[in-house]
Each structure stands twice: as C-alpha cells, then as structure tokens.
Amino acid sequence: MRKKKPKDQKAFPMSDDDLFTAPEVACFCKVDLKTIHNWVDRQQIEHFRTPGRHLRFRRADVIDFLRRFSYPVPDELLPRRPAVYALVLDTPLSGAVRRACGPDMEVEVFESMMDLGLRAGQVPPDVIVLDADAVPQGAGGIVQSLRGFTATENCRVILCSDRQPGPGDSGKMGVDGWIAKSSMKELRSTLEALLKT
Fold it and tell me: 187-196 and 91-101 helices cross at what angle (nearest 10)?
C-alpha cells in the first residue's frame, strides 16, 4: 500500500544543484551546524524538510540570508551569470552599462520603471543600475519601492548620475553604490564588489 503525500508538502521543480543541506549552509556561513538549526528554529532562514525530515535550503534563500546578514556570498553559490537590470534612457549609457558588465553578466536594459518592475517580479536581478535621469520623481522613492517589494528587497542598487551626491546622500537614498556617468568604467569594479557582499 502506497503512502499518500501530505497535502502541505509541495513539489519542488529544481535540480539538486539548487538545494543545499544544513552542513553545506553551515560551511557557507562558517558557523557550526547547531547555529543553522538555531536559525531554522527562529525562522531566520527559509527552508523546507524532506519526507525524511532532513533540512533543505534553496539557493536563492541561502543567498538572500547571506546578504541580509552581511555574510560574503561564496562563488559556488553563484554558478550562473549575475543578472543586472538597468533603467536607462539614452543609448550611449545603455551601451556603457553593457560594456562594463561584459559577457560574464546577463544584462537587461529597460526604458521604464514599470517594465523593470514587472520583469524583476518574475526573475529578480542581482543588481539594478538606475540612471538618475530616468527617474525624475527621485531615486530615493524608487529605491524605497524596490526595498519594499519582496522580489527586489535584497537586490543591490547602483545610481548613475552627473550630480555627485553629498556626504551620506547614497545612504539616505538607500542605494548601495554611486557612479558618475562620466566614469562608467568604474561600474565593473563596483558591480564585482557588490556581488561579493
């Protein structure tokens, strides 16, 4: 006689490469296995249990946890090319973003915040690059909206602007980085640094 699958247990259509055990997560975080179990008990990290009651963690949930608590994200957790979404209005800037990202990053360029938001809701990016001219209502409000949306709350945000922010402006707006449009060559190093955090 076959056992029925509990109704609350979901089917997870993902490969074994997208799932991690508790010891693997402990290794990523450089903590003891008991610490992982404590985090699970406190509901600090998303997880599920197998039918045999073993803990499993999805890749996206582990990355989200690491970023939320400022742990470095190990390279082995990022096997795919990082996704960069850019909201830019002019073609030269869009070309500069693509060149800075190179072939090892997936870049999608959007001309409207609505298009970017819809896409990010389907496939969350790792980094969003905002052209200050593309958000006339102010970058701070856009970033605040992105932080309030589950799919993009932990995305890194870089602001491109001709106007240099004053001391503390980046933090007030909630952006993770600022690049002068005249210095787009710095975008690559900023992206690499943010993807490691």
Answer: 50
Domain 83-196 fold is Rossmann fold (3.40.50)
* Fold of the domain built from segment(s) 16-71: Multidrug-efflux Transporter Regulator; Chain: A; Domain 2 (1.10.1660)
pLDDT at residue 160, rounded to an integer:
87
Which distant-in-sequence residues (6+ apart) come within 8 Å of 47 by Cβ?
A: 40, 55, 56, 57, 61
Per-residue pLDDT averaged across 73-82, rounded?
A: 77
* Model pLDDT, residue 136: 61
Q: Provide the edge-to-edge strand list for the sheet that holds 48-49.
A: 19-20, 55-58, 48-49
CA dist list (Å): 105 to 78, 79, 87 = 11, 11, 16
- Output the six-digit token pair for 131: 């052209």
Identify whether the C-beta of residue 160 lies closer than 8 Å to the C-beta of residue 93: yes
Within the chain, how many helices (H) and strands (E) appear? 8, 8
Share the mean pLDDT of the chain: 81
Question: Does the pLDDT of residue 6 top 60, yes or no?
Answer: no
Q: If DSSP codes are grouped into helix, strand and coil, which group holds residue 150? A: helix
